[in-house]
Amino acid sequence: MKTQLATCVRQTIGVDLGDKRSHVCVLDAEGQIAAECTITTNPTAFRKYFVAIPSALVVIEVGPHSRWASALVASLALWRALSPEMAT
Question: Which CATH fold topology does 12-79 show?
Fold first, then answer.
């Protein structure tokens, strides 16, 4: 699985969820920062941002918005990772 993921994912996107704004950091395949931005923390803004991304591992902070954010990212067929607390 690790090899398969590495061959199809060209970037990793970390999302620090905030109540009003979320910070996004994009790392390229070498782990270097490729882009940083902030987006409004709501489903419309998240969909607008992530729909244009063809393939990525998206790492989302656990918090009040993480369930809908994770579901939205999954609906766009992007790989996602959550903190272990999400499993409970």
Answer: Nucleotidyltransferase; domain 5 (3.30.420)
